[in-house]
């Protein structure tokens, strides 16, 4: 399974090792090429009214920062490289839930770890997307546990083969936690034994619905009907429905499947999705369904969006195949002007696509919701260099695939309609105040002449598009405005809200757009939420070496962007080694909950302890609304 030390790697770094970058770049040549394209943003400004607004807005934002007239209710903080969390003056943070904290009174005591017994009664590892729900008087958080780090979670030597108990422990530490939280003496705490508390993990029964349910490719020996499945995995970003349920998004599911037979033939489509004979955690040694030489269809049952009712701990989670199968980042639901449900979604892989789903039925508050996430049309985004774009429908006519196959091999359907190859679409957020939406394109180290995605679609540097830069190490945020101010529309205009970069050491477009300054620079935007006032909260998952191209950027962080002025200010920095991911607010927006994933060192417990991914609460010391 391992020839290299993968134990501390983030999932993306691990994937890079398994699927190494082709020999593409002579870095000097790439930089030179990019510099000759000086004016990428300038040329966008010349195209279309939306782009012109962006150019003006960025200048205003820069001026506001230079004049010290920041529009945010906090003093931006500098970068940090230490091993703790920093927030602005007048704000405080505390942990709410750490890996290993008890959800139930029968949970094992955490002593720098735990065994398999009771590992499904505790808060899981590597927290990611989350949402807070008001259920009666209770505040209930649903939060993802994306993956595990075996050497921390099991204290396994690098070359050790996990035991069956080890594998079960890892299965229990991932998935989703649903937990009630309440104000305590020092912030917010888990309400142990709350009837809402629940762990959903890799063996939790759930059902498959939508066009792919029951398809022969979803049938296994344990489930010949192809409608029931155990577990949800690599739960990355999140979403919430208009009707108060939680959406958890299965991202890098490919890495969980392996083969005990190195000669086993890989079924069609496995290459496009990165499913190979090598798994990350060796599940296949103990569970035949993860062994592609025995149950090749099991992998077709992951890569979906799963709906969970946070108000009913006995409810069965539902995998909604109508929303497509790919490396789902998050699910940003909104509503079209005619009442149809719209869900924006990114496929986080280099050169893959952005999607949206539009239901056939309509939603009305308090009305029936059956079928709204089972019956609709998927679209993939195409961006043109003139500042316009279109959502191309994935239908049997446009793809040559039937509806079930569109939902199982969604990437191939996107390729069939010529969707735009993107720089790793991570979180999408819909504005709460303006008819627009945003997507973090986190970075793309491989974008270079000759690069394609696994389907052979060209993913070269494309000036004038949302993906203009070669060897894009910093990332950008694309914004689109649907025509007619209707998220149900099939056409839109677009611009770049920000192109991250380093104005100190970056050359040409690697310096970033005008609203990136020495005082707010960052790399790899990933998590994103828009608050009720329309401010854009941006979280990063990038290189925190603070060296070379990343000099001066410090640890990963959370910033707040103004949608109209373009101003961006740093609000929080995470501990060294960590990614800041997952954000929501309590009911009155006086407390923000923020996820800290894969911290390094000994955060948060200090000397002698293992690092523990945690959800923290951040609030203003005067109790006022945050932001
Ligand atoms: Fe799990 Fe694409 O982040
Ligand atoms: Ca992410
Ligand atoms: Ca990321």
Automatic annotation (TrEMBL):
<feature type="region of interest" description="Disordered">
    <location>
        <begin position="451"/>
        <end position="471"/>
    </location>
</feature>
<dbReference type="Pfam" id="PF05787">
    <property type="entry name" value="PhoX"/>
</dbReference>
<dbReference type="InterPro" id="IPR006311">
    <property type="entry name" value="TAT_signal"/>
</dbReference>
<protein>
    <submittedName>
        <fullName>PhoX family phosphatase</fullName>
    </submittedName>
</protein>
<dbReference type="InterPro" id="IPR008557">
    <property type="entry name" value="PhoX"/>
</dbReference>
């Amino acid at each position: 399974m391992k020839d290299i030390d993968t134990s501390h790697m983030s999932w993306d770094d691990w994937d890079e090792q398994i699927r190494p970058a082709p020999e593409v770049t002579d870095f000097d040549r790439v930089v030179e090429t990019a510099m000759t394209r000086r004016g990428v943003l300038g040329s966008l400004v010349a195209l279309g009214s939306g782009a012109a607004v962006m150019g003006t807005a960025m200048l205003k934002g820069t001026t506001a920062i230079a004049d010290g007239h920041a529009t945010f209710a906090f003093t931006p903080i500098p970068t940090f490289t230490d091993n703790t969390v920093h927030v602005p003056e007048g704000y405080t943070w505390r942990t709410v839930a750490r890996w290993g904290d008890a959800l139930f009174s029968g949970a094992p005591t955490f002593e720098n770890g735990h065994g398999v017994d009771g590992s499904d009664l505790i808060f899981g590892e590597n927290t990611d997307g989350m949402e807070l729900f008001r259920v009666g008087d209770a505040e209930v958080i649903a939060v993802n546990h994306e993956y595990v780090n075996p050497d921390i979670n099991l204290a396994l030597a690098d070359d050790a083969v996990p035991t069956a108990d080890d594998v079960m422990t890892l299965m229990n530490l991932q998935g989703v936690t649903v937990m009630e939280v309440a104000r305590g003496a020092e912030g917010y705490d888990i309400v142990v034994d709350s009837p809402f508390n629940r762990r959903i993990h890799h063996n939790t029964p759930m059902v498959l619905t939508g066009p792919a349910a029951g398809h022969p490719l979803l049938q296994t020996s344990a489930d010949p009907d192809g409608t029931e499945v155990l577990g949800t995995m690599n739960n990355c970003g999140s979403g919430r429905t208009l009707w108060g349920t939680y959406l958890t998004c299965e991202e890098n599911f490919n890495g969980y499947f392996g083969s005990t037979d190195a000669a086993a033939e890989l079924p069609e489509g496995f290459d496009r999705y990165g499913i190979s004979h090598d798994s990350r955690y060796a599940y296949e040694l103990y569970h035949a369904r993860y062994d592609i030489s025995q149950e090749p269809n099991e992998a077709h049952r992951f890569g979906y969006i799963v709906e969970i009712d946070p108000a009913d701990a006995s409810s069965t989670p539902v995998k909604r195949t109508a929303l497509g199968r790919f490396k789902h980042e998050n699910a940003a639901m909104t509503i079209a002007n005619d009442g149809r449900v719209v869900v924006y979604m990114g496929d986080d892989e280099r050169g893959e696509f952005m999607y949206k789903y539009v239901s056939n039925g309509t939603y009305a508050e308090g009305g029936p919701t059956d079928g709204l996430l089972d019956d609709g049309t998927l679209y993939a985004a195409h961006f043109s260099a003139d500042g316009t774009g279109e959502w191309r429908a994935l239908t049997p006519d446009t793809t040559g695939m039937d509806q079930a196959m569109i939902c199982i091999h969604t990437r191939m359907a996107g390729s069939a309609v010529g969707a735009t190859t993107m720089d790793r679409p991570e979180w999408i957020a819909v504005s709460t105040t303006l008819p627009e939406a945003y997507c973090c394109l986190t970075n793309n180290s491989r974008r270079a002449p000759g690069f394609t995605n696994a389907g052979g679609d060209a993913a070269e540097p494309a000036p004038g598009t949302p993906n203009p830069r070669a060897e894009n190490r910093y990332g950008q945020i694309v914004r689109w405005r649907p025509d007619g101010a209707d998220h149900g529309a099939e056409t839109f205009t677009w611009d770049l809200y920000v192109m991250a970069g380093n104005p100190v050491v970056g050359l040409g477009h690697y310096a970033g757009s005008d609203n990136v300054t020495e005082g707010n620079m960052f790399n790899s935007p990933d998590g994103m939420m828009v608050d009720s006032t329309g401010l854009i909260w941006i979280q990063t998952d990038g290189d925190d070496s603070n060296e070379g191209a990343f000099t001066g950027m410090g640890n990963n962080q959370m910033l707040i962007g103004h949608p109209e002025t373009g101003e961006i200010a740093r609000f929080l920095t995470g501990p060294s080694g960590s990614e800041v991911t997952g954000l929501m607010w309590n009911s009155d927006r006086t407390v923000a909950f923020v996820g800290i994933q894969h911290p390094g060192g000994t955060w948060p417990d200090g000397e002698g302890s293992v690092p523990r991914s945690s959800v923290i609460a951040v609030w203003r010391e005067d109790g006022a609304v945050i932001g």
